[in-house]
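Lecture 7 notes: from sequence to structure.
We start with the chain below.
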Amino acid sequence: MKKESNQHRIYDKGTRTWFEIPEEEYREYDRKRTALRRRMQYQHRCICPRDKFWLCDCMCEDCEFQTTPMVSVDDPLPDAEGTLGDYVPDDKPTIDEVLADRDLLERLIKRLREIDPEADRILEIWQDNPEGISDRKVAEILGRKQRTFADEMKKFRDEFRAERNS
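Predicted structure tokens for the same chain:
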């Protein structure tokens, strides 16, 4: 069947048939479905591949390429009493807590440097062993007596606990 220059075809998925329509109607229909498809793809609600665009009929609820929309914590609740984000607890620390922890860490590092001349080496050893390392191993790496080093670290940890609790 030869297609006339001003006739276009659209596919009806329900009846699985092609219908010929005038060019003017096709342009309007194509503009509408392209805008809808792009909007849905932008919202991540449509995953229609490029070679299947001809299947788009603006019936997104019945489409095989429709995806489940994501729920946002900023969407209003059905009862219009705030958003989901108002009721979801936030486990992240506040900026004040982060700054307080940073300040405490800086003071502790400064105090460790006052107590021990090899503080930077000790910090490096601790950093190289994030799973933890015993005082005995650290003393061995530094070439010190284990008991002396352990006593210094006990003093430091006691100061740390006192600083942290105040």
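Points to note: The mean pLDDT is 83. The beta strands are 7-12, 17-22.
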